[in-house]
Amino acid sequence: MAEEQKKGERKKRRTATEAASSIGPMVKESIGGTIRAKQEGKKLAYSFIVCSYDEIIRAMDVVPVWTENYAGVCGAKRDAERFLERAESLGFSRSLCTYALCGLGFDQWREELGEMPPDAPWGGQARPDMMLSSGQILCDPRNKWYQAAQQYMPDVPIYDVALPYPLYEDDIEVADVADYYIKYIVEELRGLVIFLEKQTGKKMDWDRLSELVDLGEKTWNLIWETYELRRAVPTPMGTGDAMNTMVPMVFMLGTQEGYDFYVGLNKELKEKIARKEGVIQDEKYRLLWGGGLPSWFALTDFNYFNSKGAVFPVETTYRMIEPIYKLNIPETNDPIERLAWRWLGYWTYWYDKAKKRPGSEPDVERLIQYIEDYKIDGVVMHEAFSCRTWHLGLIWQLNQLKKIYKPIPILILGKDEKKKVEKRELPSLILESDIIDISSYSEVDTRNRIDAFIETLESVAKNKGT
Amino acid sequence: MSEYFAGIDIGSTMTKVVIMNKGIISSIIGPTGPEQRRLANKVMDRALKEVDLPFKAITYIVATGYGRINVPFADKQITEITCHAKGVAHFFPETKTIIDIGGQDCKGISINSGRPIDFVMNDKCAAGTGRFLEIIADALGINIEEMGEIGLEGNNPAKISNICTVFAEQEVVARLAEGVPLKDLVAGILESLANRISRMVNRLKVANEVVITGGGAKNVGLVNALSDKLGYSTTVPSEPLLTGAVGAALLGKDIVQKAIKNGLPLERKERSLKEIEIL
């Protein structure tokens, strides 16, 4: 039978949107495209997402090979274990970033064989001509991963882009130090252009770069506008789908294909809203995915939430924070400066809000904004053991939230200036596993926690009514 | 005519059944084995025989615990978080925090009016659970039931630095070989376990009254150590293993009463204890 599943092949996850279901083939084609590009003699660069150099490499016709993406694909296909084990046997600790471990295991195997490892997911990860690190202060693999990979590819040069931003301190104004940071980031990005010119033997076309930055910003704003549509009740798209629709956001910024994808998604969501068609029709609970990368091998957990009447209209993971015009980017015709300001604006957007609430932090302010804007009933986070950068501090953030959303009646002043009592409880759930290491995951335990969380939401709703 | 409600709690280590009408009329506690479905039948059968009730006399049955899906005759499955909250509040209505120390997991539950409002769980690691005590008791060659009393006698608790159960076992054996008195070693072990549990539970807003349930609650040394760590006095029910099953039975009663009040149909499973084939 044509529909019969191949032995060992997992059933495709059910998505709410057509756009999300189109992502799998898109990623497959993109990975295949890098292998074809290699055969055609194009220059390939190992690259990191949220790197701020998307448009620069596109303008130089360098083909990005998104190494985090390939590790995620291996995880989603539940075929990362053999690469993780290989990295471990090479002496890397299993507690390091499992994206990096998967990539290192794969690279070493490919270099040893002189060809792709057997049955490499979606044809394998192409050998790069260069590697572009992208440090963002907190994530050490973004500097160290490619340095480690160079052991197996000593002929492949690395350019390490350092992209700092001022860490939050409530007595420091970003505006006071911004120029210093911008100057530094601009130098780093100009250095990258010089490196790419050397590697490709081509000169940068600055007009083309400006056009691509325009396109990137246009796409950025469209993504924000499109995701904001998810405020609708019932929400037309949940976080499960957003973990797919992030692909053009982080892997195709500055491309027409990326922009067109969100035009399509925007149209689809508007149509669904007009038809009042939601992820589930009878939304009982609206949840915020408040932090952490997902377990790529267990995205069906989002469907499990849906089966219990819970939807995720919003997430902090893979989301443009606010439209470009809100990021206070000064007028400039220099595309490199625009990229630098965009970077700084992205990381410091919630700083001012945090200052207005003593004891708060920018990450907490972002959660509060989404909780209020999207009428959120509970927060779910994922602690992935191997990602210290992203997952450190999640419990602290929840503790800060509990100070605001208290399980006791609080007196508030309503819009009509009348005092009223309100309970603003906000239950939370922390899932524990990893991004791609499936050995850290138990479906039974995870779903037991989800069941208990749903019952907690139910009892909180009942308590509100008493 | 009296109505009877049953709660069955299949935990990772022990299976508990209670039958209630106005109060508990029958209760059974037995070890959970690999054949959970067969055991569910067996313990229910024993509980019924204890009070000479036919199975069809039970109005509603709620199953809870990790094995709750393996109870073919249960009318509804509810997680142990909700059931513990209900059961504990039945005995101690002012309860705000529950710490359930089970055989292979540990939970903290914040409750309000008998309903859970937040929870934390450790189901990833034996450290912080009853399994930790079992392994250490084995290594020390003492009975697990004796541990609490022995620990209370230790005035100078030994420092156990390993978090991992396996390495802690090695450390305990090594400390014993060094000549550390057994009572101090046991006191140190209980303190170490209390540390781990309190670290997890402190992720909740702990508030009085604090009730400890599960097999760990039977260990008086652990309860004392935990009270010290948390800075709260704690209460232990007379039978701390049964609160989940009691809560399950009470929730069943609520479901029936709500259905009657709202004129809603009540879905129930067939009342038969069929032999289950185990593959």
Describe the structure.
- The complex is a heterodimer of chains A (466) and B (279).
- By secondary structure, chain A is an alpha/beta fold.
- Helix content of chain A is 49%, strand content 11%.
- Chain A has helices at residues 18-21, 23-39, 54-59, 67-76, 81-89, 98-113, 141-149, 174-200, 206-228, 239-251, 256-274, 300-307, 335-348, 351-355, 362-373, 388-391, 394-404, 443-465, and strands spanning 44-47, 63-66, 130-135, 158-162, 285-289, 310-315, 378-384, 410-413, 419-422, 428-433.
- The termini of chain A are far apart.
- Residues 1-5 of chain A have low confidence and may be disordered.
- With 279 residues, chain B is α/β, with parallel strands linked by helices.
- In chain B, 39% of the residues lie in helices and 20% in strands.
- Chain B is built from eight helices and ten strands.
- Chain B is elongated and about 65 Å long.
- The model of chain B has no long low-confidence stretch (mean pLDDT 88).
Give a quick rundown of the structure.
The complex is a heterodimer of chains A (466) and B (279). With 466 residues, chain A is of the alpha/beta class. Chain A is built from 18 helices and ten strands.
Number of strands of chain A: 10
- Tertiary shape of chain A: globular
Helix content of chain A: 40-55%
Helix/strand class of chain A: alpha/beta
Termini distance of chain B? 41 Å
Could you give a short account of the major beta sheet of chain B?
A: 5 strands, mixed
Strand residues, percent of chain B: 15-25%
Sum up the overall morphology of chain B in one term: elongated
H/I helix tally of chain B:
8
CA gyration radius of chain A, whole angstroms: 23 Å
**Biggest sheet character of chain A:** 4 strands, parallel
Sequence of secondary-structure elements of chain A: HHEHEHHHEHEHHHHEHEHHHEHHEEEH
Low-confidence blocks of residues of chain A = 1-5
